[in-house]
Specification:
- The chain is an alpha/beta fold.
- It contains 12 helices and 16 strands.
- The strands form 2 sheets. Strands 7, 8, 9, 10, 11, 12, 13, 14, 15 and 16 form a 10-stranded mixed β-sheet that branches.
Length: 335
């Protein structure tokens, strides 16, 4: 019998509780320890484990205490906390020599990304950021075909995403800039930015951006115009106020093809040399832990790597800097 991988959780909020319903039944893992500053959140996750017939994990208020007390009892850690805490917590997990499955976005700044990369390279652990698009078979197949040259040269990218986010999260931590790291563009819009970063095949070279808070403390609407190092041009639009619902459309214009896909990898349309392929749809991942374990085992590409997280962080830092300067272009210089 293969021993189960021992899981620790940092952040026992609603997302962690949602996943726990399926993870607690997986034969590959067992919950060993959880940490959260709220006792009721910890108890909710413990109750999920008990309902699945599993043992109650050890409970900690402080994640640092959990890592210190349970370091030798853990194999992997899942981090699901407000965005502003990701950098510090993810780096601590990597420094402890534990594999890491991290909720999106990876970090909030380039400086945080660089510290996490240094910790990951020193310890050699596996780090994966849980973007549904990055784990989608349609997105990964599109990436493979693009890198193989099937679509020709990338000319331009046009992406848009919208959601009734302003009302949906009114009063939520996601609209508190000190812990959210940004507004709609950095939350739901992060899915669009990450899928673009993954499929662009190039870092960003220059970015110009505008943001409108629409009376909130964080950005609600954003417009970005950019140039990639490979010469392709990019426009991104995010609208976090509007009718109820949520959707995304990203179009990649190549010299031989046009590819349309959504940010989460739920559907794809491709036209190559004027011939349309059948529209494809895929289930947006319901249990990303299976993908994480496949990446950890080396049987699946790590599209949520720390290096991809750095590309994303450079784009986000440039968007913030340009928007703060009323659209002044920001040149991205790789450190």
């Amino acid at each position: 019998m293969v021993a189960k991988l021992r899981l620790g959780v940092i952040g026992a909020g609603l997302k962690a509780a949602e996943y726990a319903h399926s993870w607690a039944h997986m034969s590959e893992i067992e919950f060993v320890a959880i940490s959260d500053t709220t006792a009721s959140s910890r108890q909710r996750l413990i109750d999920v484990c008990l309902a699945a017939g599993a043992a109650a994990p050890r409970s900690f208020e402080d994640y640092r205490e959990m890592l210190a007390a349970c370091r030798e009892e853990l194999d992997i850690v899942y981090v699901s906390t407000p965005h502003a805490f990701h950098g510090e917590q993810a780096t601590a997990v990597a420094e402890a020599g534990l594999d890491l499955f991290l909720e999106k976005p990876m970090v909030t700044t380039v400086a945080e990304a660089e510290r996490l990369i240094a910790a990951q390279r020193k310890s050699g652990v596996t780090v994966v950021t849980a973007f549904q698009g990055g784990l989608s078979p349609l997105v990964l197949d599109t990436r493979r075909r693009a890198l193989a040259g099937e679509f020709g040269e990338l000319i331009a990218i046009s992406g848009m995403i919208w959601e009734s986010w302003s009302d949906n999260y009114d009063g939520h931590w996601k609209q508190q800039p000190e812990i959210s790291g940004g507004g709609f563009m950095f939350d739901t819009g992060a899915h669009m930015m990450n899928t673009v970063c993954l499929l662009a095949g190039s870092d960003f070279a220059s970015v110009s951006a505008y943001m409108n808070n629409r009376g909130k403390k964080v950005d609600i609407a954003s417009a970005v115009s950019a140039r990639l190092e490979n010469g392709a041009l990019v426009t991104l639009t995010a609208a976090g106020e509007g009718p109820r619902g949520c959707a995304s459309y990203i179009t990649f214009f190549y010299s031989k093809a046009i590819v349309r896909i959504d940010a989460w990898g739920g559907w794809r349309e491709i036209s190559v040399d004027g011939a349309d392929e059948a529209r494809e749809e895929a289930e947006i991942l319901g249990n990303p832990m299976k993908n994480f374990l496949a990446i950890r085992a080396g049987t699946m590409e790590n599209s949520g790597s720390v290096e991809m997280g750095l590309r994303f962080a450079r784009l986000w830092d440039a968007i913030k800097a340009s928007a703060a300067a009323d659209g002044e272009p920001v040149r991205i210089v790789a450190s």
